[in-house]
Amino acid sequence: MDLTIESLQERLETQGYICDQDLVLTLYLSLKLAKPLLVEGAPGVGKTEVAKALAGALNTDLIRLQCYEGLDENRALYEWNYQRQLLKIEIARGTCEPSALEKDLFDMEYLLERPLLKAIRADKRVVLLIDEIDKTDPEFEAFLFELLSDFQVSIPELGTIKARQIPAVVLTSNGERELSDGLKRRCIYLYIDYPTVEKEARILQVKVPQARKELVYQVVQAVNFIRSQLNLKKKPSIAETLDWARALVAMHADALTPEIVGQTLNLILKNRDDQEMLKREIGLRGLVEKSLGTKGDEGTCCQCIHHHR
Amino acid sequence: MGINPVTGVAGREEKGENTLHHNLVRFTHILRHLGMRVSMAETLDAYRALTLVDLKSREKVKAALRAVLVKKAPDRQIFDLAFERFFVPPEDKEQQYLLRRQQEEKERQRLAKAREKLEQVLSPWSMEIKFNQEDIQTFVRMPLQEQKRLTDFIRRMRGNPVNSPGELIARVMQSALNYWRYYLLKTQGEEARRQLEAELTGETELDDVISGVAADFYRDPDDQLLYQDMQHIGLAEVEKYTLTLERLSRHLANRLSRRYRQSSRRQKLDMRRTIRRNIAYGGSPLKLCYRSRRRHKLRLILICDVSASMARYARFILQFIYGLSNAVQYIESFVFSEDMERITPHFRKNEDFVTVMTDLVNASQQWGKTTDFNTALKTFHVQWGNLLTADTLVIIVSDTKTITPREAARELAALREKVRDILWLNPVPARQWSNLPGVEVFLPHVRMFECYSLHQLESILHQQLLK
């Protein structure tokens, strides 16, 4: 497959993933250099979506490893099927040569593949998503080094297993803790910021095609204002903007009004203090007015975010 | 730099100084000196990345290098600034080079004049005083009226009938120059370089880029708050700062209170439960049960200096620790200046932090006084010594400026014997610790950390509490 930057962007857009040139170029380099891609950014800016869209664009499978604290190699890489091994021992008791039995017991047949092993043993190049890597312990991160740099794993009983096809690896992190230098060194880095007004409007048009253009424009202006001007505990993510737009469509709203914003505010601000702050600082009517801002306002606002981030 | 008349190639090209390799290596060198971590492996990746993009497109080159060399969100701005300053068209580079040469020449002349002027003022003792290049540079950079004030003062001293005026004048001159060197460093660019952890290389062309980036560097307002000295948080920013503080302490609290799911490989088999569970399978151990060890939550004692110089730091640090109270089994908080006071009951009123702090400051006898750490620790031992256990972590927040530091150090040693560890958060920058007598005597008994910003506070507690 002869992949170019332009063709990758086209394919991603056909998957409904709106992205800018920098993001595509970073993804392209990660694929061409066969290096994992580490994606960081605030929750809900579309980090996981990168992997999903990439799998779609490359027309391949997505294998996902969801990380959590305490995740170990048994859950991530492989585990011997202990119960099955035990049954085999019971069945073969007295009928089989012990050394042959032992050899049999540590065969691939008794190996339970977990996502990492599955990805490197796959016959075709898959996309491996290691989601929220910052939630794991530093020890697990170190354990990943062999996989991420050499695309191989060592299983003491079987030896080293090399990847049949080097998977496209995407790691995501919410920045809950600083990742090790070793891990970062092995990765290509991508930071995804909150989108500009234009980009978010395009995303909304693709994902919620039922929403009228004016409504889309109002929604993204309002969300942009909330993100950039209010000191919130949690800023609304793209996913929440989408939910809000879908809810407005479901309520047959053609435009934002103070009443309808009041009824649906809990879709974008999921913290009582944040809701109170919005009402106190600008009020529902004020937000509606901001959402009707001129094109000039839009430019300034979006530049402001881009500039500061 | 001109064109070689024989080869017809520009000098820099001829020396191989304008090749892709050369420029890439120099660029990564600059990034390292700007505090970014760029390994050899990443430099090689950067080179490979450049072979995959259109080198004529500046934006693509920039994006490719950024993807490979930047590994932290805050480093993106440093990278962008360095890229814009380093990768400039050859003619601009030549222009910059010529300009630099002119400036160097001007500077050389200025220094020569200053040396002459100094020697004139100090004559006939100028031979006894050995000025180094840095002294002369400091003199040149001093404001003109200050230069005049200093030279007038030295002239007046010449008539002073002391035994050895030359030595005295030399000492006065040296200490004046030392003061100005420190002042100028502090006020002109040093602050920016410190924020960036940037170091100059000694090579003019690279240092131009590094100084330029340090001068242009500004942090995202949200990030800036994290790195800002707590003492300089303005009234307008307090609300935003408090929110950030809450967010960070909540974040840490979540991690501290999380229940760990240990790997089954690391645990011990619980034989009794395993046998009981497998009776149904005829005694074959099909399903294994493991013993898991409960994690003990931490016990924390916070001792905060609230003397005049420390009150502002104390307010923010107390709030941060207060935010951890749901994750840490036990927190006792104390404030001290002339003596020790227990403030834990104020924190148990279930009121918002601002109200708690207002009540606290009104009720406390210690806020804004001078510091006597020795007396404060003695009181602590007598009244609250029973709180000290082997699993207690003591956090002391103070600038170590106290009367009778040696006596205080003895009390501190006694405290250290009774607890698991003592962390000392010192808001004075580490490079000034050598001037504080307290630091030297306290250091053997505590682990001291520089801590004047929220970023430092969070990362110290993160590392130390999650160990």
Automatic annotation (TrEMBL), chain A:
State one molecular function term (GO). Answer: ATP binding
Q: Which residue numbers delimit the AAA+ ATPase domain?
A: 33-193
What InterPro entries does the record tag this protein with? Answer: AAA+_ATPase, ATPase_dyneun-rel_AAA, CbbQ/NirQ/NorQ/GpvN, P-loop_NTPase
Cross-referenced PANTHER family, in alphabetical order?
Answer: MAGNESIUM-CHELATASE SUBUNIT CHLD (PTHR42759:SF1), MOXR FAMILY PROTEIN (PTHR42759)
Q: What superkingdom heads the lineage?
A: Bacteria
**What's the source species for this entry?**
Desulfofundulus australicus DSM 11792
Return the CDD domains for the record.
Answer: AAA
What's the protein called, per UniProt? MoxR-like ATPase
Q: Which Pfam families match?
A: AAA_5
From TrEMBL, chain B:
Q: Which residues form a coiled coil?
A: none
InterPro entries xref list: UCP010256, Uncharacterised_CoxE, vWFA_dom_sf
- What is the protein name for this chain? VWA domain containing CoxE-like protein
Organism, scientific name: Desulfofundulus australicus DSM 11792
